[in-house]
Each structure stands twice: as structure tokens, then as C-alpha cells.
Amino acid sequence: MADELPPEGTNGSDQNAPRVQVVGQYIKDLSFENPGVIGGQQARPQIELNVDLQVRQLEQEHFEVELKLRVNAKAEDRPLFLLELVYAGLFELHNIPDEVRQQVLLIEAPHILFPFARRIVADIVRDGGMPPLMVEPIDFAALYRAKMAEMQGQQPIAQA
To answer: Are 69 and 18 in contact (CB under 8 A)?
Structure first.
């Protein structure tokens, strides 16, 4: 009896265990402008990085998470390049409690997507004639906490 195999398709894992599955990842939108390549590179550029996250529920267990990166580089107040990337992933969530679903989608999912988006940014900037840009790792948990604090701070104003 101890030698019995688990039912097919279960791999011996608990069917009710919380699980996050990456169904797919893809570039949803990409734009790169490099007016500064003609002038050459004199000074170290000032880099401005903006990060945004969007989540859409597609089906009961399927969610699309968009990681939006906007990189604006200037040298001596002259534009060098502007890169806008929307890198998305389709995630399937199983048995994730409602109280942690938002954290999974806004912290764990972008954490999975980020290395791929970072590589795309580096390659596009390099292929555009500039030195590759290695975006520093992003603390998505801190972004999530800041966003929640901002939303809680706005609630009393909205109720007034």
C-alpha cells in the first residue's frame, strides 16, 4: 500500500496548496528614441527611471501583470534617449487567499518579470548606440507599501 502512486497529474503535491504559475511573458509595448546618439557621449548622463504596475483580471484565475518602465536619459540638459517598455506576464493563481492576492500580483509577479525587462532595456539601449544600461533591482515590496500608505492617506480626504 505504501508503494501506491499519487493520482495522475498531481505529482504528489497537494491539490489545494497555493500556487502561482507563469503562463506566458511578452513585450506588450516598446518605444526607443535616441536623438543623443549623433552628438556622441561626453558627460555621464542623468538617468530618470519611472516604474508603474498594472494588473488586470482576465478570467477567474488568470491575471495579466504589466511592468511599465520609462527611462529618460539626458546629458547637460540635452536628451540622449527615451525608452518606454511595457513588459507583461500572464499569471495563473490557484488557491491564493483573497487577502494576499494583491501582494502576489504586485510584489511577486513583477519580481519574476523584472530580470527579463531589465535585459530588454540593456539590449535596446546598447543596440541604439549607447552603453548598455543595467537598471538596478527594484524593491517591489517597498513600492507596494508606499502605494498602500498613499492610498490610506487619501481615503480620509475622499470621504470628506
So the answer is: no
Mean pLDDT calculated for residue range 29-44: 76
CA angle 13, 18, 21 (to 5 degrees): 90
What domains sit in the chain, N to C, each tagged with a CATH number? 19-152 (3.10.420.10)
> What are the tens digits of pLDDT across the range 73-103?
998 888 889 999 999 999 999 988 888 999 9
Q: How many beta carbons lie within 10 A of that of residue 64, not counting itself?
A: 19
69 to 51, 138, 158: CA distances (angstroms) = 5, 11, 29
Largest CA distance in the chain: 76
User: What letters, b where the CB count within 10 A reaches 16 and e where it falls short, cover 1-22?
Assistant: eeeeeeeeeeeeeeeeeeeeee
Single-letter amino acid, residue 96: I
pLDDT of 129-160, one tens digit each? 888 888 999 999 999 998 888 888 765 444 43
| Residue 32 cell numbers, joined | 526607443
The answer to whether the CB of 51 falls within 8 A of the CB of 138 is yes
Q: CA 116, CA 110: separation in Å to the nearest integer?
A: 10
